[in-house]
């Protein structure tokens, strides 16, 4: 008999794939054979990452990647709405076929456990139907799960109607007295698209929540210390196993170039700017940020996804190149890259400030590296909750205020960069949080213990 087999099904987007790949690698180290589902959509985007992950020297065997069709055309792949539609319409059938394929001709159950992103309730239901053990994985803050689990309470208290519509917009609520306040307009479903879309997302969340609630395990890329109140609300089901970070250094040319470039600067002097995998700035905001960095007169490493559809659609031809030419011609030092080895960049001693959109992975990576934040949430609703954690709960960052036109001005950026990089108390707290995060995953740490228990359960 071979190793016990785990099928890992991520939502096909970088922010979801990165932590689940880390979890897969850890399972491989525990003697499991892991099949990681990738779609055509994401496989193109994160091929390097998957290759890097499967080639890690310390993995005793491989994470096997199974690419399933997503039914999307090249044009469709540029539209996030089409992606979520294909995840519901095409992916379930393809994953079902994959399980049949793994089970082979006599259809014996080969898979010991299915681990699926908590947003893929259909995958958890399929595992239940087929009698496969299952676990849900949350790549976002536990506070976001707490939000979903609190839907019945929000309805009871008249904060939302049964279809999820807000009874009052822009109202501050707390899911528990110890949790950071949330603006009702930033509730996940309430912050997306038009009323129809909001109702659909709400229904989907309710459906997923029902599937997730039934799983034996609900694993989170977080720690008790970062989110004690959220874990209290979710007890006993949700368990933190984070932070799930890569311990390997990649050897790609981009990584080497970025790290070599950082080597030339003194400790904590460089600003790192990155907005995750899908956030884009419009030309006005891009220019304000560029000018703010120039005014700050500090070295910077900025991720600008030039080939990203939103950037290329909104920016006039040559616009970003013009900026780069000015950077090179001026006497301040900065580099712009399409995709940085973020975890390694954040771990580099020269980095002293992380200008971030506060995606949960970026938040956890920044915290684990002891780098203070300048928070710029602007895409999905969870980023505002993460900003509250960073600024109000943990005290390791500052938010950026928008002016009357909704723009974060160059002067605001310059001022806040100065404050973040000069605030010794904040820097001290960031280092304490880093220690705490590392402690959780060490032998005997809370996350390490939870992971060990999970592994024991699959093998049992
Ligand atoms: O140049 C880059 C830019 C990003 N990353 C990595 O990409 C991931 C980005 O993840 P995250 O910070 O969570 O941002 P998003 O990609 O925007 O993630 C989506 O998914 C997250 C988890 O559910 C949510 O918290 C976010 O709001 C949502 O936008 C991180 O691991 C980064 O290290 C790189 O390695 N290099």
By CATH reckoning, the class of the largest domain would read Alpha Beta
Count of spatially separate domains: 2
What is the annotated CATH architecture of the largest domain? Answer: 3-Layer(aba) Sandwich
* Helix and strand composition category: alpha/beta
Report strand order across the widest sheet. Answer: 3-2-1-4-5-8-9
Using brief descriptors, characterize the structure shown.
single chain, 460 residues, alpha/beta, Rossmann fold, 2 domains, 7-stranded parallel sheet, 6-stranded parallel sheet, 19 helices, 15 strands, 48% helix, binds uridine-5'-diphosphate-glucose, UDP_glucos_trans
What does this entry show, briefly?
The protein has 460 residues and is of the alpha/beta class. It has helices at residues 14-29, 40-54, 80-89, 91-103, 121-130, 142-149, 151-156, 195-213, 228-234, 253-263, 283-296, 309-314, 319-329, 342-347, 360-369, 382-393, 410-422, 424-441, 446-459; strands at 5-9, 33-39, 63-68, 111-117, 133-138, 172-173, 182-183, 217-220, 238-240, 270-274, 300-303, 334-337, 351-356, 373-375, 397-399.
């Amino acid at each position: 008999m071979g190793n016990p087999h785990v099928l890992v099904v991520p939502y096909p987007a970088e922010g979801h794939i990165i932590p689940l790949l880390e979890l897969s690698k850890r399972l491989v180290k525990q003697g499991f054979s892991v099949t990681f589902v990738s779609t055509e959509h994401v496989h193109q985007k994160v091929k390097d990452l998957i290759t890097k992950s499967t080639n890690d020297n310390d993995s005793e065997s491989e994470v096997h990647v199974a690419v399933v069709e997503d039914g999307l055309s090249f044009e469709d792949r540029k539209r996030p709405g089409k992606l979520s539609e294909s995840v519901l319409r095409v992916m379930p059938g393809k994953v079902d076929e994959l399980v049949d394929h793994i089970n082979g001709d006599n259809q014996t159950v080969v898979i010991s456990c299915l681990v699926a992103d908590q947003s893929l309730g259909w995958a958890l239901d399929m595992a239940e139907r087929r009698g496969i053990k299952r676990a849900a994985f949350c790549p976002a803050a536990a506070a976001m799960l707490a939000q979903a689990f609190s839907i019945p309470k929000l309805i009871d208290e008249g904060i939302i109607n049964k279809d999820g519509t807000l009874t009052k917009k822009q109202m501050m609520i707390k899911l528990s007295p110890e949790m950071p306040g949330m603006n009702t307009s930033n509730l996940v479903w309430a912050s997306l698209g038009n009323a129809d879309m909001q109702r659909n997302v709400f229904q989907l969340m309710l459906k997923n929540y029902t599937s997730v609630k039934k799983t034996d395990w609900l694993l989170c890329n977080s720690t008790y210390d970062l989110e004690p109140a959220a874990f209290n609300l979710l007890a006993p089901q949700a368990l933190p196993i984070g932070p799930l970070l890569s311990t390997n250094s990649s050897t790609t040319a981009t990584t080497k170039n970025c790290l070599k470039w950082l080597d030339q600067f003194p400790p904590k002097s460089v600003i790192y700017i990155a907005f995750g995998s899908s956030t884009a700035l419009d030309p006005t905001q891009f220019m304000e940020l560029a000018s703010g960095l120039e005014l700050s007169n500090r070295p910077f490493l900025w991720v600008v996804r030039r080939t990203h559809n939103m950037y290329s659609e909104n920016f006039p031809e040559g616009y970003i190149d013009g900026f780069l030419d000015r950077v090179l011609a001026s006497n301040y030092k900065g580099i712009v890259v399409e995709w940085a080895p973020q975890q390694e960049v954040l771990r580099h001693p020269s980095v002293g400030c992380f200008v971030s959109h506060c995606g949960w992975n970026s938040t956890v990576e920044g915290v684990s590296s002891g780098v203070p934040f300048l928070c710029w949430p602007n895409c999905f609703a969870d980023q505002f909750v993460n900003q509250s954690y960073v600024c109000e709960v943990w005290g390791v960052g500052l938010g950026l205020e928008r002016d009357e036109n909704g723009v974060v001005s160059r002067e605001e950026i310059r001022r806040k960069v100065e404050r973040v990089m000069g605030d010794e108390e904040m820097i001290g707290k960031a280092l304490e949080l880093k220690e705490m995060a590392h402690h959780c995953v060490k032998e005997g740490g809370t996350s390490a213990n939870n992971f060990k228990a999970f592994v024991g359960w699959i093998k049992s």
